[in-house]
Predict the structure.
Amino acid sequence: MATLDISILEFLTPAFTFLFILVISYAILDKFKLLGDKVAPKLLAAFSVSMLFIFSKEALNVINMFTPWVLVLAIAGFLLIAVLMFWGAKEESVMNAVTKEAFWPIFIVVILFLVVVITVVFQDTQSPYDQSEDKTRTSEGFKTIFHPRILGAILILVIALFAISNVSKGLAKKG
């Protein structure tokens, strides 16, 4: 029986990552007109950023671990929109909900993915803890993030965010 050996893709990962970063950074520079309208400066800056990422093993690992998670999140979002429209939701109402109400939760999830990926990639560099102990940088970081005081502060900030948002909507309707 014939099998497909795709282990060659492991050696091509840096090239794919280089092209991905080149295209994304050029698109950002072109969209926001950060370097004007000429192609050469934007292409040179995008090439320089891509080369910086290729020469840094940790930055390459962050991109290679983060990109699949974001793509899975995007595909899940597209499938959710397709299911909603299949069930009979109007295109305008789905687009209004996606653009207005879903931006911040998606942004927070992407930032959490990024924090987890950065923690995984950089957990072994210059750890202040002795490796023979139970304490590691990751375990101590999670203990800090999930401490009751921190979680309470986050909860209060989220409640304040929704309260301010709803009060400002009410004032905008009256005024």
Remarks:
- DSSP finds seven helices and no strands in the chain.
